[in-house]
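Structure ticket #2291
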Amino acid sequence: MGIKQIVPILAVLPMLAGAAFAGDAEKGESDFKLCKSCHAVTATDGTVIQKGGKTGPNLYGVIGRVAGSDPDFRYGDSLAAVSETGLVWDEENVAAYITDPKAWLGETLGESKVKTKMTYKHRKNAEDMAAYLVTVSPSDS
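Resolution: structure written out below.
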């Protein structure tokens, strides 16, 4: 195979990777009922998008935000340590986190002894929830 055949393939690969991860935001919005007991989605102007609890942080704008950086929420030590690294939430790492928060924290921090306040595990369709959270993030994030 010559270079003229390889270059177009290389150009398409990143698009395929994104398509493989794409979740269904509509399904994620429907699944948000599983999150409402702990999380709300309230825009910065006070508009309530999803009414919910305050046990967890407000999820408005979580995609594109530094992990553990909502000033109105007190995070556990492990997520606060992730915040110090500057990690920014994107669809992929949000989906991985909500699938198993403790395992994700351990892997991300490279530590075996981590603690999380989020004990719920979103075992199915986490990519759908992440896709929904993109829709409740400001377009400039």
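Closing remark: The first strand starts at residue 41 and ends at 42.
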